[in-house]
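Example 3.2
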Amino acid sequence: MFSELRDGDGHERDARRAYATRCAPRAHACVELIITAAPYGPEWIPSDFPEDIPVKMEDQIQKAVDCYNAGATVLHLHVRELDGKGSKRLSKFNELIAGVRKAVPEMIIQVGGSISFAPETEGAAAKWLSDDTRHMLAELDPKPDQVTVTVNTSQMNVAEQFDFRDIAGTSMADPENFAAYSNMVVPSTPSFFEEHVRRLSKAGIQSAFQFYNINSFETVERLMRRGIYMGPLVCNWVAIGGGMDQPTIYSLSNFLRAMPDGAVLTVESSMRNVLPINMMGMAMGLHVRCGIEDNLWTQDRSAKMTSVAQIEQLVRISREFGREVANGKEARDIYKIGQYWNSADEAIARLGFAPNRKPGQLGFTFHA
């Protein structure tokens, strides 16, 4: 199907570049900005920010509506019970997804694959649920557009880069609670994530890969080359330290060098690093994430900042950069929601990866 790109003079590299230019929009091209809102903040309790942590189901739905109206087209979704604790009941996820789908049908619903890592009781460990429970996210009804997928077991010390002022007056200032989040580990072995992406793909749910470093990206590339995942490469670069990448331009640039042309990348960081990393991402043509799950504060910590206010700030800055914000339809087109390909060869070609090398093949590889 790509025979028109065969280069008779042996300039395989030019042929690969031509294919990438025609078929795979570059990850750093200045397409419309997609803003992901993470407004539910499962690590916090309602008393940490009562003005912005909804508990009633109708209020949780309204939070999604408010974020969409402010300019966010992707909703990173967690659910709370009426007592304010993070919900682990799939029935509650189904209820919230159905409510959001009805209220803002164009919004991309992205379920957090951890379900909820918040401790259920004071002093208990913060932990992710079992593999079998996480696999059940492929059975959500109505189905979300995406489920986040972590790749490779890693330390997830979300508190490592917190300043004491970031958690002053919050539940995270409790030493036992702080220790629980500091010692959290993401369990994600090949037996889990390979089966998980298969189930999600079969259900028509896009895997939204969470890349903690370049190693996790390389693992997903190998998954694609083996035909385990054959969909769009939509992913987050998670730069919060503590086992994940560092929020610096050096780490981001090194990561981007490995990304194929057709990938769609969102940058994610924590607390006061959120805004600077998002500004780098906007300037580089990447996409951004904000909300109280990532940050509670204005940049000078003079006041807490709602998820909606954080979205509005990014919309303003993006437009000052000369970059428009995607609407719901544009975001779905950029993410290629609902698209899957028929083979590993087709998937890696469309994304701009070099083709799989055949046994005994030497030199440059190119799509023929």
